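input
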Amino acid sequence: MKRRVVLFGGTVILGALGASLAPYLELEVIALIPPLPGAGELGALAPDVILFDAGTAQPDPAFALLRDRPNLTLIGVDPEGDRITVWSCGQTNVASAEELLQVITHALGRA
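output
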């Protein structure tokens, strides 16, 4: 079963992550660029993971969706700090798409 990963925003880092994750057939990567949807529209996509650039504005619709879907994983990517933050599991350093895939699969309980 494919896991749906939503890239929430149109930043360069999210575009690069989308390209890095594209070879992983177990993931369906959906890129959302501005204007970004609200929580209802975002929820209709049934994401398993939402990736966003933590250096930009916080993705309020994604956090609103998290309140209603506790199994959803939000991952904020901070390219300047060279780390990611996983809500609500803490933070870790990653250096490659493979490591990011490990974080995603671990967050989904598939490690």
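quick obs: Residues 3-107 form a domain with the Rossmann fold fold (CATH 3.40.50.2300).
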